[in-house]
Amino acid sequence: MAWIYLLIAGVCEVIWAVAMKESNGFSKLWPTVVTAVGMAISIWFLALAMRTLPLGTAYTIWTGIGAIGSFVIGILWMHEPATAMRLLAAALIISGLVLMKVATPH
């Protein structure tokens, strides 16, 4: 269950990060509300995952899901550049996440 909790936490991190961008510096009400609620849910599920997963693993994968998810949303929805260097950096992050998962005995 810890890995499912961690996945939910990571997805919620992407949601709050996108909502924060859309809030325009917290000047728009609903994106600001989604940001706050998304943060709370994300941290709650991260805490649940940390009951059994090591801190380093849980936190690294949580931030990695958030980073890669936000990166993909940025490219697909916000038309941010998908340069070779940015794609390589994302691939390195993903490879690090896979290695962290493989190296964790849970």
From TrEMBL:
GO molecular function terms noted in the UniProt entry: transmembrane transporter activity
Indicate the transmembrane segments per the record.
27-47, 59-78, 84-103
Q: Which Gene3D superfamilies does the entry mention?
A: 1.10.3730.20
| Localization of this protein | Cell membrane
- InterPro entries noted in UniProt: EmrE-like, Small_drug/metabolite_transptr, Small_multidrug_res
Q: What is its main location?
A: membrane
Q: What name does UniProt use for this protein?
A: Guanidinium exporter
**Naturally occurring in which organism (per UniProt):** Paracoccus aminophilus JCM 7686
